[in-house]
Amino acid sequence: MSPGTQTGKKPGTQPGKKKRSKTLTSSIVELVAIIAVALGLALGIQAWVIKPYRIPSGSMEPTLAVGQRVLVNRIGMDFSDPHVGEITVFHPPEGAEQEQCGPIPHTIRLGGEACSQPVPKKDGGVNFIKRIVAGPGDTISISEGHVIRNGVREKDSYIRACGASAECNFPKPIKIPAGHWFMMGDNRGESDDSRFWGPVPTGWIIGGAVATYWPIDRIGIL
Questions:
Q1: Catalytic residues
Q2: Total domain count, the chain
Q3: How does pLDDT run across 57-78, given as a tens digit for each residue?
Q4: Beta carbons of 166 and 134 less than 8 angstroms apart
Q5: What's the whole-model pTM score?
Q6: Which candidate, 50, 59, 82, 56, places its Cα nearest to that of 69?
Q7: Which of 28, 82, 96, 148 is most open to solvent, judged by the fewest CB atoms within 10 Å of its CB?
Q8: Cβ atoms within 10 Å, residue 117
Q9: Do 34 and 140 belong to one domain?
């Protein structure tokens, strides 16, 4: 074979290798870009639209069990007010974990009236999940764990009542201030809630729980 023929084969082989290499590189770059965009969208949705939460305690039993996962609608509060009966994730008032109540922080007296005002101005920096049982302007008392709102007992087949326990009976009525929501756990005898640290301002509500997604046998709409 002549030298001229050998020289003619080499230019034809090299461009093909470069083309294949360029195509592979482009595909990898495209795949990385798609993954990055998908991840960004997922993080954005979690941060601003729907966020998952894990139930940390038994305060919402039997509705929500310890370890169960829920999805919370973070943008719903931008378009409508919360409503009585809704399960929400929120920031409790500062001092809630110490059961502090009122503008002048104090501990409530069991068997009298529930806390009608939170420690003002600052939230506690943690997340709680409870059910709204009363809203702005409502008058409530609590009997054996049942909420009497504006003279009518709530329809509360979802709760675990707590009988004659002192923390379940606050017969003296209180009025919920404007722009505030009274929160209680469904497990009325085992819930640290607004009875002890007061109603929550609208601005401290993160969003409403819309569905459960884990465990599989408890998947459903709330």
A1: 59, 130
A2: 2
A3: 999 999 999 999 999 998 877 7
A4: no
A5: 0.80
A6: 56
A7: 28
A8: 17
A9: no
